Amino acid sequence: MHQIVVKALIREFLLKSGLTETLNTFDKEYKDKTTITKMDVILQLGLSKVVKRNNLSLKPLKSLLEILVSHLLNKKAQLEALTIASKAERIEDIPQDIPYDPSVGASRMNKMKKRPQSEYKPKNLDLSKEEEVVIEQKEDKKDETFSSNKGTFEISRKSSTKQVRLQDYQEDKIDDQSNQDKKELPNLLLSQPPKLINMKKQSEKKEADQVILKDQQDNNQDNQTMNIKVEYQKCNIKQHNVQLPISNLNYDKSIGFNQGKRRPQQKTITQPIKKLLFQGTMTGLPKSWSQPFIFKDEPTFFGLHQLEGGPCGVLASVQAYYLKHFLFSQSSYSKVSIKQNCLIAALSDIFYKSNKERLIIAIPARDSSMSQAIGIESCDQLEYQIKSFSYLYEILLEHVSLFFGQNGVTLFFYSLILTKGVEQIIQEMDSATNPLIGNHGHCTQEAVNLMLTGKAISNCFDGCKQIDELKIKGIEERSEIGFLTIFEHFQYLEVGKNLKEPLLPIWVICKEYHYSVIFGCNNDVIQDKPYLKNNLKEFDLVFYDGLNNPDDLIIITIRRLGAQLGKQKKKIQIEGVQFDSSDKVTPLIECLLKTKYGELELDWNDSMPIL
């Protein structure tokens, strides 16, 4: 896809610059005939706001390539100015009799790179004390609290983020604080059914007081009863009604135990693992895999952040199990320690599905190359005998700092392979030559199935299929987390009901070799056609992509085709760019969801459509 976008940018630049001969030569030498519209390029690059500002400027640039380069150069200049400003402020605060040390005030990530990994000691990590680079000034956030009035729930508004500027900084800060003090916190009623509250829209309104809000909601109920004959399952993330078995895990626990046997890594183990991972196509995991597990704040308080492309398969799978524990198994969404322990519970789920008898954790033994993620040959092993799921959870609590430090994602993936066993993984595959990591550092289907189901199955259909004398294995039982892929829409593979209708309304989705997550807040959405059994004409799903849209709360309303009396042609305006809805490109997510729900219409609820 990126080659098509690059070609479109170059062709438009040559055309706008009047270089017709160069353009003709470019078209002759470039053999790919795939075309893409200017609107698609703008949406793919996320340049809607930038294009709008350029069109309103006194001297607008002509081509998208010029707009993109100008935008990147301006961002670079702003970051350099902010860095100089922050250094100047630190120098002024240093007494003159003390020499200036440029390493003072370095971010946690820079310190992490300087610290040798061989110094790793299993201990708990308090993420509440984590340092951050001083580029953005964030106001303090208030935790969620129960009000004195019975049946009400107070949710603090999302704190505004104001970029630090060189001029008039103090005045802007004072004005921002005074405006923040004037805002009132909205109160939502717990007694209201989830189908009548949309957290995304309610959080953006300025509420007056509880009495007025209650009166308005009562009026809305009356109007809905009179005018709407079908039930609309409106999504409410914090007040879901997903039913789960009672968990015996203590999400507020901070002490684990460490009784494992440490042993150095041997070539007899590392060579088979590297062959299983890459099958000779790569020498090691790319640098993008060296990231830790990182939490997001409001409005996507339930999300994990991905820094670069590559480890999306691991992060999306862990994200799905993290939603199970953090969103559906407990109700304290603001404590960092709860987030931390829910992530440990998610990792425990994946480990326990792969092996219920042992756990092997890969820990750094020496420094690794900065150009790649840590290699398996640079890790030692800690082996434990597992007694129960809660026992495994308490073991991982002792190694919290391992997964929240540099290479946390990579070390988890190595630990999963060691715990499952190379020979067992190969036996579950259709072919022993299938790698777990593809050519571009992405997880293959075997790796994703290993994390979702505990088995490295190469296919997604139900059961087994016999082709002549060859037996091909599929998913044997209903999975706890589901899986959907755009490649079923292209008829490249088949996804069975064991993955389409999981036990929980959470799906890992694959869209053009990138994995993300989509989930619902009601068990009814698990069924392929929920509107047939529950008389639903509309229902909501939440889409989360930790790489491309980590800060966007995207709630997609799925509407049964034909639920509306007529489909009218209308013009849609997205951040200054207009196009006809009847002529727009069908988003891949819509094609993907059709493989589960059949013919449907998507309403992005004021969010930009994800192509």
UniProtKB/TrEMBL annotation:
GO terms for biological process: protein K48-linked deubiquitination; proteolysis. GO terms for molecular function: cysteine-type deubiquitinase activity; K48-linked deubiquitinase activity. Signal peptide: none annotated. Its EC number is 3.4.19.12. Residues 274-606 form the Deubiquitinating enzyme MINDY-3/4 conserved domain. SMART domains: DUF4205. It catalyses: Thiol-dependent hydrolysis of ester, thioester, amide, peptide and isopeptide bonds formed by the C-terminal Gly of ubiquitin (a 76-residue protein attached to proteins as an intracellular targeting signal). Residues 116-145, 168-185 have a biased composition (Basic and acidic residues). PROSITE patterns: LISH (PS50896). The keyword DNA-binding does not apply. Probable hydrolase that can remove 'Lys-48'-linked conjugated ubiquitin from proteins. Belongs to the MINDY deubiquitinase family. FAM188 subfamily. PANTHER family: UBIQUITIN CARBOXYL-TERMINAL HYDROLASE MINDY-4-RELATED. This is Probable ubiquitin carboxyl-terminal hydrolase MINDY-4. The lineage of its organism: Eukaryota, Sar, Alveolata, Ciliophora, Intramacronucleata.
